[in-house]
Amino acid sequence: MSLADACLVRLAEQYAQSKVLPLDQDFQIYRKHSRHIIPLLMPH
After folding, report:
1. CB–CB of 27/40 below 8 Å?
2. Which residues contact 31 (CB under 8 A, 6 or more apart)?
3. Could you give the CA distance from residue 24 to residue 35 in angstroms, rounded to a whole number?
């Protein structure tokens, strides 16, 4: 996990209703609070 990815995960933990728009596939394996899926807006 890069520092930028870690910052986005932490922001997703802080703002529960937020969604992350990643530009790579890595966010499909990251979790909030070690077990909750991060809501994503994946580009096609």
Report:
1. yes
2. 9, 37, 38
3. 20
pTM above 0.90, yes or no: no
User: Which two three-digit tokens encode residue 22?
Assistant: 């990643």
CA triplet 18, 28, 15: central angle to 5 degrees? 15
Mean pLDDT of the chain: 89
Average pLDDT over residues 2-30: 90
Question: Which of the four pLDDT bands, split at 50, 70 and 90, describes residue 11?
Answer: very high
Distance CA 20, CA 6 (A): 12
3-class secondary structure, 11? helix
